[in-house]
Amino acid sequence: xxxxxxxxxxxxxxxxLNSAGAEQxxxxxxxxxxxxxxxxxxxxxxxxxxxxxxSETDEPFEPVALKWEGASKGVWxxxxxxxxxxxxxxxxxxxxxxxxxxxxxxxxxYTAALRAVRAAVAEGSGGDESAVEVKVYRVEVGPSRFEYxxxxxxxxxxxxxxxxxxxxxx
Length: 170
Known about the structure:
There is one protein chain. The chain is built from five helices and seven strands. By secondary structure, the chain is an alpha+beta fold. A five-stranded antiparallel β-sheet has the order 3-7-6-5-4, sandwiched between helices. The protein folds into two domains: 1-29; 44-168, Nuclease A inhibitor-like (Nuia). The longest helix has 24 residues, at 3-26. The protein is elongated and about 80 Å long. InterPro entries: NuiA-like (IPR056539).
């Protein structure tokens, strides 16, 4: 084989690899989600949580602070509204389930996370954490990939605040 023929063979092989790689990255089956709206201050209790959600990958809880006009009226988002808040570019509404805090945390592993979410709302509304309602949304973002949103309504600021944890569950 001549040098030119060999170089042509290598160039073609590398071109095939590069185009396959470009196709792979362009077709990600995992939805991207957002956790903090632009120009929204994250409540301090949410930034100091040092807790991990236990799954096949132990992921840290991350702060969530999203503008939601229903929050100022005490209205929780349904699955379609939550989908538009966390994933403006993909409809995840069919992949969202609502859980109670006790079904999300039956072994009391995440009490620090739940307490931080309640504290984030209570700090601005007089300090009664026990009066703060918390809901957990389980969102399937891809095959065997889930995100858990532990949320509360901040009525005063018109926000949904809380924590998100990513999980792999196969």
